[in-house]
């Protein structure tokens, strides 16, 4: 089992009393990283997680005055649903991030017209290899109350392969028992090549899971995906947390 306290101490935990202040400072930190990449190479790439936590952050990011047409924006993971579904991370991004100044960003979704998620993985791997600057300049991770991050769920049989630091695939499908929809997700190996990784979480419950894990996982002597990922990342992850 991973020593959670020691594992976290290796990363940069940034607590905030107010979510609004977290969002403006996290947005500024991300814009700084993207601007540096744009100045150096003329291009930048950003992979973001879905869910509801980042709504305010995306609103802030969308207003940044940077060369968005030169920024490749994509998802860390996606639910395998139509992009007009309320469960679609792409739909949420188009409503909350690919707007304002960021409306001209070069966005690549993960959901293709493929009939199944496994074919979708093949399609997205092709996109990743040809249309999205790699390695990523910035990756923003979230975390679920069950300790999943990206779509590396504790109750998906594919998660050990997804978290393999020597994994050879950049994208894979996961079928978490707790989710009624298959997921397409970047692999740990792909995320770990990023220049900067941010973890954005809110609420006391998620902080407790991050700091002490889950009794159910401890009973099974299983490390949660978030802890395994933080243990394996070589770079220091900036962890932004607010109540
Ligand atoms: C998703 C996300 C996922 C998310 C967590 C947290 O598709 O759901 O990519 O990894 O970051 O589930 O979601 P909330 O922000 O809604 O709690």
Structural descriptors:
binds 6-phosphogluconic acid, 10 helices, three-stranded antiparallel beta sheet
The run of helices and strands is: HEHEHEEHEHEHEEHEHHHE
**Total E-strand runs:** 10
Instruction: Give the terminus-to-terminus CA distance.
Output: 28 Å
Q: Structural class of the secondary structure composition?
A: alpha/beta
Largest sheet, spatial ordering of strands: 1-10-9-6-2-3-5
Q: How large a portion of the residues is in β-strands, by DSSP E?
A: 15-25%
Uncertain ranges? none
- From the spread of the alpha carbons, the general shape counts as globular
List the SSEs and their pairings:
Elements: H1 4-9, E1 12-16, H2 19-41, E2 44-48, H3 55-62, E3 71-75, E4 77-79, H4 89-96, E5 106-108, H5 117-131, E6 138-141, H6 159-162, E7 171-174, E8 183-186, H7 188-192, E9 196-202, H8 204-212, H9 215-219, H10 225-232, E10 238-242
Parallel strand pairs: 1-10, 2-3, 2-6, 3-5, 6-9, 9-10
Antiparallel strand pairs: 4-8, 7-8
Helix pairs in contact: 2-3
The chain binds 6-phosphogluconic acid.
Residues 49-53, 76-77, 89, 142-144, 149-150 line the site of 6-phosphogluconic acid.
Task: Write structural notes for this entry.
By secondary structure, this protein is of the alpha/beta class. Helices cover about 35% and strands about 20% of the residues. It contains ten helices and ten strands. The protein has helices at about 5-10, 20-40, 55-60, 90-95, 115-130, 160, 190, 205-210, 215-220, 225-230, and strands spanning about 10-15, 45-50, 70-75, 75-80, 105-110, 140, 170-175, 185, 195-200, 240. The strands form two sheets. It has a seven-stranded parallel β-sheet, with helices on both faces. Strand 7 and strand 8 form a beta hairpin. Helix 2 crosses helix 3. The protein is globular. The protein binds 6-phosphogluconic acid (6PG). The site of 6-phosphogluconic acid has 13 residues, from loops.
